[in-house]
Amino acid sequence: MEEIVYYLEMHTPPAYVMTTADSEYVLEEVKHNQAPFNQFLYSFVGKAWDWTDRLVWTDQQWFDLVNDPNLRTWVAYRDGAILGYFELRKDGSNVELLYFGLSPDFIGKGFGTAFLEDAVRQAWSWDGVERVWVHTCNFDHPAALDNYKRRGFVHYKTV
Prior knowledge:
- By secondary structure, the chain is of the alpha+beta class.
- It has helices spanning 35-46, 59-66, 112-124, 144-150, and strands at residues 5-10, 26-29, 71-78, 81-91, 94-102, 131-137, 154-158.
- The chain has a 7-stranded mixed sheet with strand order 2-3-4-5-6-1-7, with helices on both faces.
- The longest helix has 13 residues, at 112-124.
- The chain is globular and about 40 Å long.
- The chain starts with a strand and ends with a strand.
């Protein structure tokens, strides 16, 4: 099957009242950067969706990623287990939702909406942001594209 990549963006913070899942999981920003932790999260969450581009990275590439001052990593926990994670990267006035996903045990349990809203909220929390964008593909979770659109992203390109 050929990969189809969908690019989506938003130019203003969403106007909807965001879902709150505060009582269902704890969201924490990773403040002490550890390359092996990001590497683990990428493999753990991405395995089901064939995330492969970073699997060939060197230790130095992982180190450079997590120590980039324009990268922020967030992890959600439920009952001590990793619910999911996302990475945000700022480039000027743009923030890319670089990676976003739930861990296998929490897929299909109703966390995707609130977790994506948390990612969007954190993306817009940076000073000077004028655009938040993300890309997904036909190999990601079947509900991913619609979830992005329902959370305020607008599709602008398909490759």
